[in-house]
Protein: Lipase
Amino acid sequence: MKQFILALCLLPFAGVAQKKTDSSYANWYYQDRMKLYGQLNTRPADILFLGNSITERGEWHELLPGRKVANRGIGGDNTFGVLARLDGIIQQKPEKIFLLIGINDVGRGLPTEMSLNNYRRILERLTTALPKTKIVVQSVLPLNEEKLPYAYLKGKAHMVKAINEGIVKLAEDFHLTYLNLHELFAGENGELKAEYTKDGIHLLPAAYVDWVNWLKMKKQL
Structure:
């Protein structure tokens, strides 16, 4: 009986300790995009953009005419999802990869250390398998709290800052080019400029024109 009572007393604490982190990524949309990309990954690419919806929404092939461009963005993707689909990226042997991932990790409240561990594994895999590919690491974009309709992202600017600080360090560790997109997209208050977004997280189509021009100014395109 004493053992039974002790077990009951410990149940709430065990529940807290065993709280699971939502690291899922392979929803129906992810799987559909993977089916499409699976048919395209045999095509070589000069430039490959890798990330989530912010990457996927870019009309990169239109913005970079005459270049072999691959858009490998998947809406809703996180660092777990990118890590799981690197085989297809490596298969294309791009000359340059622009990597932007992490805001959906922040949105889910994943521990920053977990996201950065995934990020390190992503960079380890890419640099090992593609030693001749230039990998450009880009910061997670800022948010605009006033325009955000998504409660799960509100009040998480500090997490964006933390993950970006970690990404800077990883870029240094791997001797990769790091681009701070806040130079272009953040206003004086540090938030995503209102003229660039409708919902406080995603970019308006015209913002991608400025993004490409900025990359060219930075001599990355």
In short: The longest strand covers residues 47-51. The chain has one domain: 25-217. The two ends are 71 Å apart (CA to CA).
